[in-house]
Amino acid sequence: MAHSSAWPPTSDSFTKHASAPGEDLRCEACALRWLGEAEGEGGISVARMMGVNRDQLSEERVRQVPPSREGARQVGRALAHMHAAGAPWWGCPPQGWDFAWGDAYVLQQSRIPVVCRDGAPDTWGAFYAEYRVRAFAKQARDEGELDAADVRQIEKLCVRLERGDFDAPQPALVEQCIASSNGAVACARLHGDLWAGNVLYDDSATGATLIDPLAHGGHAETDLAMLQLFGFPYLDDVLAAYDEVSPLADGWRDRVPLHQLAPLLHHVVLYGGPYVASALRVVRRYV
Predict the structure, then answer these.
(1) Each residue's pLDDT tens digit, 114-134
(2) Strands (E), the chain
(3) Residue 100: which region, alpha, beta or left (left: phi > 0; alpha: psi -120 to 50)?
(4) For residues 123 and 83, what is the distance between their CA atoms, to the nearest angstrom?
(5) Cross-strand pairs, 60
(6) What whole-number distance in Å separates Cα of residue 1 and Cα of residue 277?
(7) Which of 44, 55, 124, 135 has its CB surrounded by the most CB atoms within 10 Å?
(8) What's the pTM?
(9) pLDDT confidence of residue 11
(10) What secondary structure, in 3-state letters, does 177-230 show?
(11) Which residues contact 101 (CB under 8 A, 6 or more apart)?
């Protein structure tokens, strides 16, 4: 994988370092490139890389500005176009990520729900149940944060997910991309960890720049639900502008907590405590 001639970093850059043995920051570099491919079609800006190797990733510093209503509307429109860049299968990793398939530690550290194309699920519900909800629930059970009764309740929800009870169309632009792709696109192109801290308001044409992606193929509602989980300045304007450009499917608001369940379960794994009750409230809502 080629390195930028700007390596080593300068005073206008920020350098991330691998935080644990075996972690490979080339995974994140692939994600930034993949999301950045959508910028030419109106997709949201992503952090500019200056250099990358396995242990370090250098990016240009994002020059942040105060949040604004107009900036939020730019963000909503740009996210819609990024999602509409599409992905070839549910759970696919960013293009160029293939080098990490054989490294179990990298898979664990990335937290990306990567799925090989052969045998990949055909529906969002099947993908979400197996590679998001069950995966995090198992980790939480192994850590002692969930008990057997909790896991049984979660499994009831997974059965409903796999049955397709909560499957819904993607936003309109994503559906158009899928319909016109002759089978090359199956789902949306996601940032994958779209909480407020990873969306930095700036003076770019798209209103903000994305950092720290866990990019994969999934349902666009998942990114939007994550953005709502911990709050975001002018969130209503983001969602309204998104819906104007790429109308969301009927009932999308009712599905927000369901799409938030996977990150809540991941927080159970990391922090336990109050996240257990929050996750289980979501489970009970849908079983």
Answers:
(1) 888 888 999 999 999 999 999
(2) 13-17, 45-46, 49-52, 56-60, 188-190, 199-201, 208-210, 216-218
(3) alpha
(4) 17
(5) 13
(6) 43
(7) 44
(8) 0.92
(9) 57
(10) HHHCCCCCCCEEEECCCCCHHHEEEECCCCCEEECCCCCEEECHHHHHHHHHHC
(11) 107, 114, 116
DSSP 117: S
Amino acid at 16: K
Which of 41, 123, 29, 32 is closest to 85 using CA atoms? 41
Q: First vs last Cα of the chain: how many Å apart?
A: 46
Give the mean model confidence (pLDDT) for residues 220-225.
98
Catalytically active residues are: 193
Residues 6+ away with beta carbon under 8 Å from 198: 191, 210, 211, 212, 213
* Residues 261 and 282 sit within 8 Å (Cβ to Cβ): yes
Q: Kind and range of the H or E element at 26? A: helix 26-36
Edge-to-edge order in the sheet of strand 13-17: 13-17, 56-60, 49-52
Q: Which of 199, 196, 213 is nearest to 64 (CA)?
A: 199
Q: Please state the rounded mean pLDDT for residues 78-89.
A: 98
On whether the CB atoms of residues 80 and 171 are closer than 8 A, the answer is: yes
* The one-letter amino acid at 100: A
Show the CA angle centred on residue 202, arms to residues 198 and 206, nearest 5°. 85
Q: How far apart are CA 145 and CA 138, in angstroms?
A: 10
> Facing residues of 14 across strands?
59
Top pLDDT among 8 and 128 is at 128
Strands 199-201 and 56-60: unpaired
pLDDT in tens, 136-187: 999 999 999 999 999 999 999 999 999 999 999 999 999 999 999 999 999 9
Give SS3 for 22. coil
* More confident of the two residues 60 and 18: 60
